[in-house]
Each structure stands twice: as structure tokens, then as C-alpha cells.
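Support request, please re-run this one:
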Amino acid sequence: MRNNIPIFILCGGLGTRIKEETEFRPKPMVPIGENPILIHIMNSYAKYGFKRFVLCTGFKSEVIKDYFLRYSELNSDFSIDFNTNTKKILSIDHNLDWDVTLAYTGAETMTGGRIAIAAEKYLNGSEHFGVTYGDGLCDADLNEHFDYHLSHNKIGTVLGVNPPSRFGEIKLDQDTVVEFSEKPAFNEKWINGGFFFFKKEFLGYLSKDKDCVLEKNPLVNLAKDSQLNLFKHKGFWACMDTQRDRDYLTELLEKNEAPWI
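Re-run finished. Output below.
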């Protein structure tokens, strides 16, 4: 069943907050170790059986298209007969069994519009689908997330995370400090972790208009209708917004301490 659930990955943004990396490539193609962060995200799904992907491209879409068009060649032995201009793959040195669709959704289209445009063509009758961004990693059990979504029978289920604060926390009794914590490890303030499962009915909340933002009217209205559940995840989660974030993820990988692997 998991194999037939399309996962829509938002790959079309400008990535302006990490401009030093996105001047020549879209953010999902920024490498973490040897592979783009996009491949790490797709691997996170694939290990739980989700192997059907729809990449919603926009900014510098040609970079992503070229990567996947040449993936087998770059990871295989092959020969070229220049007399006939023919090419033969001799051995495939990867074990990917994914179904990857690259859907161009416009250079300036916002997140909700991208999903609506791609889903109209490539949902292919599926009753459920996943959505995530092209810059976030976590170690959540996505099987549990999907099972939770199915069992609660809501239109949408978002992964809720509560990353530790980068800043200290001070608790006061009037002006007296009663507790000082340098960096609280856990709090009950849940935020959008960027991993979703939806019923196909969610498409009714979206618009193909380029200004449709997933996080605004679609999710706000879904919540107003009591159709959005939260799947709580207390483990690892990180979003690659800045160069500092990218360096942090790279360091974890180089130390063999990457929780998402």
C-alpha cells in the first residue's frame, strides 16, 4: 500500500536565506555529504516503503531534472559506441527502486499552488498523499505517522515537532528569577514539522493560483473545520534554512551521527 502513496516534495522555492548555496542550484540540491538533501529526504520515506515521489519544481528546475535523468549513468558503468552514437549501461551501481515524477509547477508559484498543480496531474486516483518540503530532515517513523493519519480519519495530519530553543529560558516570579535554563531540551510548544499526510479531499482547500500558500488559508481553514490532526514527534528534526543549518547537518553526517539515516 505504501508504494502507491504519492509523496509530493516542494522543490521550487528560491532559497533566499541560504543564497550562498542557491545561486546556481535550487535548495533541495544543496549537498549534505555526497548527496543533495533531497535524496536524504526521499530515503527517509523509502525506508518506510513510500517510494512514489512527485517533485514539484520551479526555480532552476533544470538542475533537478538533469540530476535524475543522469542518475543511473553517474552511478553505473556504461559504454559508448561513438561510431553509432549509442550508449549501453553495463552495470547499475545503485539499488533505487523509486518511481520519481518531476512536475514543473511554475517559477513563482507558492507552496499550495504547487501541490494543486501537480496533484491534478499525478495523484492518479490515490485516496491519500504525503507532502513535505525540500529542506527538512527528521527521524520520525513515517509508517506510524501514516497509520495515525489513517486511524483518526481526519483530512490532514501534520508532524508536530518541538525543537530545543537556541536561547536560554528565564522563569520569573515578578522580577525575581526562579528558574534559569540555558537551553531547554523540551517544551510543549509544538510547531509545524513540515511532514504531512492528507486525504485527497484536501485538494478542495487548495487553488492552482500561484499565490496559494499551503500554510495560510488551506491549513488555517482545515484547522477551523476540525480536520487537521497533530502527530507528535519528540525526536530529531532539523530544517536547512541557513548555511549554519547546512554545516550542522553535514557535521552530523561526517561523524556518523545523522539520526535520519
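The chain has a mean pLDDT of 90. The radius of gyration is 20 Å.
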